[in-house]
Amino acid sequence: MINELSIDRKKYLLSKKREKLLIFACQILSLFLLIVAWEILANIGIIDSFITSQPSRIWETLLNAPNNDLLYHLWVTCYETIIGFLLGTTIGTIIACILWWSDFVCKVADPYLVILNSLPKVALGPVIIVWVGAGAPAIITMALAISLVVTVLEMLNGFKNTDPNIIKMAKTFNASKWQIFFKIVLPSNISTLINALKVNIGLSLVGVISGEFLVSKAGLGYLIVYGGQVFKLDLVMTSVLVLGVVAALMYQAVLLLEKLILRFIMHKS
Amino acid sequence: MHKGLKLDNISKIYQDDNGETIAIKNFDYTFEKGTFTSIVGPSGCGKSTLLSIIAGLEKPSTGQIYIDDVEVTNISNSIGYMLQKDYLLEWRTIYKNITFGLEIKKALDEKAQEYIYSLLKKYDLYEFKDRYPSQLSGGMRQRVALIRTLAINPDILLLDEAFSALDYQTRLSVTEDVYSIIKNEGKTTIMVTHDIPESISMSDKVIVLSNRPAIIKNVHNITFDIKNRTPLQCRENEKFSKYFDNIWKELNTND
């Protein structure tokens, strides 16, 4: 009986399992209690459901999605976010490549990057609207503006911190700068890129929602602002809820991508 | 014609904001073809700089380098360089790591592939060729790194503290492996190390350098009267401690 677990081991595994179960149960229970309390307090009039909405009305709004265009607005926000995210990551990485390539350009660009990084990008909103026009392009530009500089800085930092000895190894084979970049620096920074993706998906969403707040006729951000203005708090609460779920799903998608990349490209389990 | 690697009056001066540093001064030496030469010296004396200059990674401030009487001015195809650690690329298979140098040089033809396969088979790595570096032990990784260097078929091999990252046990066995591979392939080898026993056990000649700027203090001929010697046999030989004492004393005198 080699595979027989010792009693202590069994006890340990059992206690671990119990703890996990308990945490999960408490998470479900607290959510349940929150919803029930909210519903009851609203029904007996202690809190005003006109201002706070209430779970049953949120549920109704959700069920009513075909009539209130919730799905359409959700789709608009998602596609704007994904495009902003892809553009921000790609353009940011390309700019980081250029700055890695030329030390001189990098030093010249440094103060600009510092200022652009500290500047709250929402302040550019009106400028973007004037330049790009109201609508989806302006919102995507907003998402891009928020994620771009962070990507540039993070990727550049990763590129510059590539192990100099690995680069030296490649140089002993007379590798060109081009070869060093594509065969050493870029693959060495796959994990940096994944980190940038993780940060960017959240930032793009921030950009899109604030863009939609400023100017738009569609999207969850628009729905939230519109609902607030006409005091349709059901719509506002439902939109916020959906937004939360979407944000979590998008982040999970990036985590899944990370797993796939690590397994099939970097060969780590 | 003189077979080997000749360094003619090599000096290296570094410039930075704090002024000039002379790393190497008027270095003259000829490494004979097929010999194993170690360079030992105090840390920071410029021995790694010397290796970088030979490899063509750095330009000397003065002087010339000749291989078989032909002057070299760039990174030469006949020089292979091995660093402190294996620096294998984790995202490439063992085979793709070994072909890395040839891929860079765009010289991965059928003949080169056959040569790599023969090296892999000869040095017991063939069955691991499709594995990834993280699946190999430290000693095996070092052997892969050596074969990556040998794959470009260099005449001259430079080892820069090539075993210093390994633990003592692995180090001894890798030293045996690497030594026998180098002797098998008949390469001229220059090794920089701070490990005196290692230098004695592997080398035909040990060059002792002074403090910065590096000049040659002495050159020791290491002979053991053992046919087909191995590093371990040398370590056990009675002459070993005599060589050690001489080199040790020389390193610790400042004149």
How would you characterize the overall build of this protein?
The complex is a heterodimer of chains A (269) and B (255). Chain A contains 13 helices and no strands. Chain A starts with 6 loop residues before the first helix and ends in a 5-residue tail after the last helix. Chain A has two domains: 7-41; 69-264, Orthogonal Bundle (MetI-like fold), CATH 1.10.3720.10. Chain A has helices at residues 7-43, 49-52, 55-63, 65-68, 70-101, 103-118, 125-132, 136-160, 164-172, 177-188, 190-214, 220-229, 233-264. Helix content of chain A is 83%, strand content 0%. The model of chain A has no long low-confidence stretch (mean pLDDT 90). With 269 residues, chain A is mostly helical. Chain B has 255 residues and is of the alpha/beta class. Chain B has one domain (4-252): Rossmann fold (3-Layer(aba) Sandwich), CATH 3.40.50. Chain B is 35% helix and 26% strand. Chain B has nine helices and ten strands. Chain B has helices spanning 47-55, 94-98, 100-104, 110-122, 138-150, 168-185, 196-202, 231-236, 239-252; strands at residues 4-16, 19-32, 36-40, 62-67, 70-72, 79-82, 156-160, 188-192, 205-209, 216-221. In chain B, helix 6 (168-185) links the parallel strand 7 and strand 8. In chain B, helix 5 packs parallel to helix 6 and helix 7 packs across helix 9. At the A-B interface, helix 9 and helix 10 of A face helix 3 of B.
